[in-house]
Structure formats: structure tokens, C-alpha cells
Amino acid sequence: MRKLTEGKLVVATHNAGKLREISALLAPHGVDVVSAAALGFDEPEETEDTFAGNARIKAHFAAKKSGLPALSDDSGIMVDALDGAPGVYTADWAETPDGRDFPMAMSKVWSKLEDMGAKEPRSASFNCTLCLAWPDGHDELFEGKVDGRLVWPIRGSHGFGYDPMFLPNGESETFGEMSPEKKHGMSHRAAAFSELVDGCFD
Ligand SMILES: O=c1nc[nH]c2c1ncn2[C@H]1C[C@H](O)[C@@H](COP(=O)(O)OP(=O)(O)OP(=O)(O)O)O1
Ligand SMILES: [Mg+2]
Known about the structure:
The protein is of the alpha/beta class. It has helices at about 15-25, 50-65, 100-115, 180-185, 190-200, and strands at about 10, 30-35, 70-80, 95, 100, 125-135, 140-150, 165-170.
């Protein structure tokens, strides 16, 4: 597996919540981080139907454009009773003409479960695929997952996206209620990061 040797890394995301988490997860490793959004890069279209496929699109786009290694994150929530939806389309479910509306997206998920009479526990998982790509076209992929269940009403104002409706197994706080440090100890993103750190950092 290729090691990350350069000091500077582009984080290929336009999501401020993800950038905050990725920066915190990278902080102990002495990497100098700049985001694709801060560099003014466009968002490439996420045309694949897998997390890995879309992670590769985002990381290669930023690596080519910057001439630096780039790290992307493609992630989403998979609800068992919905056969894994919204999955790769988790961000799309929140899309409105005025931007993303996550309270609306969470209530869409919950109403679908209500409409179908889904039984407790309404199990779901958060999934994350990281892609580290270099300007020469090489890449490495890492995956992480956390299992839990969905709750309603939503709880907490920490984190981002669908965090307030996700209760990880064995916990009493949703991702929206827990501190960032606690989420970083158990999240899908943290799990993928630990693979990345083991494989690519000295
Ligand atoms: O820890 C999380 N806590 C809550 N929600 C989360 C999390 N991780 C992903 N999610 C949701 C947010 C987003 O709606 C979708 C990912 O979509 P995804 O395309 O990978 O990210 P994005 O468009 O927000 O940013 P970008 O593509 O620029 O990295 O899953
Ligand atoms: Mg996206």
C-alpha cells in the first residue's frame, strides 16, 4: 500500500461538517489540510451507484486539479427496512431548490417507515468509504461502518446531516447528542480512518 509522504493533503469535500470531522481525525498525524471547497474547486458529479465509485470520482478530481494527494469521503445511511435506502443517495434525499434540508430528509425516512409499519428496532447503519488518490492516478480505498437504529423525534444538535436520528448500538445518546470526541471514537468515518492510518501513515 502506498504511504502518504507529502505534507499537504487536499480534503475533497464541500461538506463543512465532514471537513470538521476529517480535520479532527487527521490532526494527530501532522498533515497540512486544505479543502477542495477552499481551493474553489467545483463539485464533480457523483454518477456512480456505490460509495467507492463516488469516493474515487471526488478524490481523483481533486488530486488531478491540485497536483497533490487528495482524500475524499463518500458516505450515507442505509436503512434495513428500506432495503438499504437512502444509501448512496443520502445527500440527494435532502436536496431542495434552496439547498439541503436535513430535518425534511429525516422526516421523509421516518414517514416511510411509519407508512410501511416497520417494526422496532428500526435498524440502520452509517457507512463511509474513504479514497486517497494521487495525481498519477494511484488510489487506496478504506471502509467503515457503524450499526444502530433510528429514533423519532430527532435528538441533539451536534454533528451534521442525519446524526440526530441515529442511535448507535449500545449507546443512549444519538450521534446528534454526543460530543464530537465520542462520535470520533465509534463512527463509520473513524472506522475507515483507522484503516487509512494503519495503511498509509508511518
Ligand atoms: O457522520 C454523518 N452524520 C450524519 N450524516 C452523515 C454522516 N456521514 C454522512 N452523512 C450524510 C450526509 C450527506 O447527506 C450524505 C453523504 O453524502 P456525500 O455525497 O458523501 O457527502 P456530501 O455531498 O455531503 O459532501 P461531499 O460529497 O462534498 O464530500 O450522508
Ligand atoms: Mg456529495
